[in-house]
Amino acid sequence: MNREALQHPLYVMVHPFNGYWDLKYVRSQKTSLILSFGILFMLILTNILGSQYSGFLVNLNNPRYLNSLLEAVYVLVPVLFWCVANWSLTTLMDGEGKFAEIFITTCFALFPIVLINFPWIWISNFISAQESSFYYFFKNFAVIWSGLLLFVGIMTVHQFTPAKTIGTILLTVVAMAFMAFLTLLFFSLLQQMIVFISTIYQEIVLRR
């Protein structure tokens, strides 16, 4: 992997239209996937470190009860749901993007969150209460920047109009909520089945 490929996430941040066009039609998909997994790993790492080491003025988590696995799930599940929901909908709406392209587009769009939030994990330990507004400003700025990149990326990868892209994003969010509901329902039913089977087993053992 050459230096130019490693710098492409930065290029996408400042030139999203050209950057995403290159990702779809010019760049090697294998290289882009490797970079995407790298960005996703860095986002997970940033989320874990932020929950553990951010300054007490901005950190609402109790480090004693921090579960790194759950912090990773909080990143992985939304990304997976987004990619699956968007791919499912755009397949029906004549979108040109493949699942791998949607995943790459999504991960590259999340890079500003990593790049901006990571240094603020350490800076937040040295700021006062009045200066904490800068912390929240940059966190919100990173989210907005990533949102704009995601909008451009979805529009480019599927070759949609801006209006159709907005509609697709809204439908994707609705589909994600529906997927989350079905997932929670499934695990709830599974838990009840396990309790039911356990209760029957205990009854049989006690009667002996």
What is the number of helical segments per DSSP (H or I, 4+ residues)? 8
Q: Which whole number gives the mean pLDDT?
A: 90
Write down the Rg.
21 Å
Structural class: mainly alpha
Largest sheet: none
Uncertain regions: pLDDT < 50 for 5+ in a row? Answer: none
Tell me the distance between the termini. 66 Å
Shape: globular
Helix content class: over 70%
Provide an overview of this structure.
This protein has 208 residues and is mostly helical. The protein is 81% helix and 0% strand. It contains eight helices and no strands. The radius of gyration is 21 Å and the shape is globular.
Please render the helix and strand layout as text:
Layout: H1 3-14, H2 16-25, H3 29-53, H4 68-92, H5 99-109, H6 111-123, H7 132-158, H8 162-207
Features:
about 0% strand; about 210 residues; 8 helices; about 80% helix; mainly alpha
